[in-house]
Amino acid sequence: MKTAILITARLKSTRLKEKALKSIMGRPMLAHMIERLRLASRPAQIIICTSTVAQDDRLCNLAEGEGVEHFRGDPDDVLQRMLDAAHYFQVDTIVSCTADNPFVDPVYIDKLVDFHLSEGNDFSMSEGLPFGTFAYILKREAVEQACRIKDTIDTEVWGGYFTDTGLFKCGTLTVTDSAIRCPELRLTVDTQEDFTLIAEVFKRLFVSGKVFKLKEIVELCKNNPDLLEINNEIQQQPGSPIKIKST
Questions:
Q1: How far apart are the first and last CA of the chain?
Q2: pLDDT at 240
Q3: For the chain, what percentages of helix, strand and coil (3-state, to nearest 5) are there?
Q4: Which residues contact 55 (CB under 8 A, 6 or more apart)?
Q5: Ramachandran region of residue 28, left (φ > 0), alpha (ψ -120 to 50) or beta?
Q6: How far is CA 229 from CA 44, 95, 133, 226, in A?
Q7: C-beta of residue 79 within 8 angstroms of C-beta of residue 161
Q8: Does 221 score more than 80 pLDDT?
Q9: Which tens digit of pLDDT belongs to each residue from 32-49?
Q10: Which of 23, 110, 138, 150 has the greatest CB tally within 10 Å of its CB?
Q11: Rounded Cα distance, 33 and 128, in Å
Q12: Contact 102, 212 (CB under 8 A)
């Protein structure tokens, strides 16, 4: 049974152009994310899961430079792209992250993988971490089924295929550690304001050769309300509703 991290990444963003490659402390944001994810011990591999569009060539170049694998698949159908990558690399358990989230926590990746496997889930998520610091865990066979029942190639937001159809065993790991339980804290990158906050966190915590912990990020933000004001007006954009084939 092979577990791997799949980081879905594109350079097509219109709200903040090429955000995955934007520089923080002299390195692309995605490179910092890879460095953090390497600390997770349960996954055997990290794979940048991008598209066949020429615009995304630089993501493949980054993957090679960082010593991780990459896969190129459907530009719009994220579920199918993840499935194709899982088949290609013979991955049974998918840890799904997006390049929008440089602070995905490796400790809770490991905890969630253990929870997912012990419960025999098709889909597992966590509850209580800051927005943008969690991953999702998927059984490859469940993604195969989701791809069979979906009736659209627009699957950039795909969680509902698992949680809303009643076809899959889903589980939620609740975070009880008060040092990191902070679901109201937004640590994803969708806009310039989001990126400014992330860059400021790096400015205050970054030490070369060290990955600062989620606990440090949460503590910094709680103790410095000025940081929270940077992106507190940003609303998460809703994704397209799921579409199921008629039977």
A1: 33
A2: 75
A3: 35, 20, 45
A4: 10, 11, 12
A5: beta
A6: 38, 31, 19, 5
A7: yes
A8: yes
A9: 999 999 999 999 999 999
A10: 138
A11: 20
A12: no
